[in-house]
Amino acid sequence: MAATAAFLASRPRHAVEPTDPLLSLDVEQALSTAKVLGGQGRACASLPYFRRAVELVPGRWELRRDYAAALLDAVSEARPSLRVAQSVTRSSWERGAMTREALAQLDLAERLAPTPTAGAQVIALRGMGIANWGLSWNGLVEYGRAGELAPGWTELHGHGADLARIMREPQSAAR
């Protein structure tokens, strides 16, 4: 009993919480790390760094757009395991939550976008994600909205035209 009392008396009164190394990063450090990880195909690993950048500067539309893109990439990220690729995320529930968060970030980025072209970038990213999930008509509508905001963006119109062609001729998607 005396040993327990001595041990308890010797412990610091205020437990020291381990510090999160992300808290020491500024926005540029967090963003740089996130982009490096994303460029290596490690979208899931980039998420805490994008999240940190968004926490530091919540009003930058492009940070929210990039965070949403990383979330969308992370949903489909897979690693080879034995003979098959396995999802990096643990469950379909987790992937659903990431998708909802990506859509929420895209909504915020669209509201914060300073120009029509910036807004079109966000809407086009949403359209691509929606089309990739198999909701082709909804994706096409988003591409159309983006095209109205940025009529001179030829690459965007090409993506929309490709999606429309695949919808008309599904066998052309295999090419």
Oligomeric state of the chains present here:
single chain
Helix content: 55-70%
State mean pLDDT (0 to 100 scale). 87
**Class derived from helix and strand content:** mainly alpha
CA radius of gyration is 22 Å
**Termini distance?**
77 Å
Extended strand count? 2
CATH topology of the largest domain: Serine Threonine Protein Phosphatase 5, Tetratricopeptide repeat
Structural description of this entry:
A two-stranded antiparallel sheet has the order 1-2. The longest helix has 21 residues, at 92-112. It is globular, with a radius of gyration of 22 Å. By secondary structure, it is mostly helical. Helix 2 (27-39) packs antiparallel against helix 3 (43-56) and helix 4 (61-75) packs parallel to helix 6 (116-132). Strand 1 and strand 2 form a beta hairpin. The protein has eight helices and two strands; from the N terminus they run H-H-H-H-E-E-H-H-H-H. The protein has two domains: 23-112, Serine Threonine Protein Phosphatase 5, Tetratricopeptide repeat; 114-175.
Can you summarize this structure?
The protein is mainly α and 175 residues long. It has helices at 2-10, 27-39, 43-56, 61-75, 92-112, 116-132, 136-149, 154-168; strands at residues 78-81, 84-87. The chain folds into two domains: 23-112, Alpha Horseshoe (Serine Threonine Protein Phosphatase 5, Tetratricopeptide repeat), CATH 1.25.40; 114-175.
